[in-house]
Input
Amino acid sequence: MTLTRTTGRVSIFAVQGLTRVGAHPAELLRQILHIGWLSLPVVGLTALFTGAALALQIHSGGERFQASDVVPAIVAIGMARELGPVLGGLMVAARVASSIAAELGTMRVTEQVDALVTLSTDPVGWLVSPRLWAAILSLPVLVGVGDVIGIMGGWLIGVNALGFNSVTYLSNSWAYLEGWDVVSGLIKGGFFGFVVALSGCWFGMNAGNGAAGVGRATTNAVVAASVGILAANFVLTGLFF
Output
């Protein structure tokens, strides 16, 4: 019964967050800057090293079956379909979900949220909606950039360490990469952004009293966002493929 009640409350909270847009558009832009632009370095570095490591692993395994030539194609498809969205989402979850939960949790325990209610201002529309929509809009862009950087990471290793010809590597990556591979990853990014922001906002707005309550909210937000991304990835992969 508790699980059902919590699921219902979170669902209502999510719907309200998506529909009660009450903040000034400048707040949405500020959140896009915070969630999207400032997350680009960590997402880019993660994608770069992931693409490079993936190329090394695929080349090592492919040599056992005389199939090392598939490195460019598998790196490109793997980054676009799976690793780009999932790892990008997890990096943003670690950075953004904790930040949102800490910020809103602090506002909750210092009664700033109650002050908004006193001023006849909807706290969900003012605090939650901009963060939800900013994450939904930002994550697909981050995933797309991460895909490109990850493929370039594989290209750097392929050309400089594995003996691939640069033009051949890039042409093989492009030849085997289909449009749906990219689009499905971008769609996943939008869902993952929703999961990240919803986790941070929910636990932040329901934080317990004191510093300990804010700390628990921050930890729970990151855990919930990470598990939610992995679960959503499984469901979406089953639907897409």
About this structure: The two ends are 34 Å apart (CA to CA). The chain has nine helices and no strands.
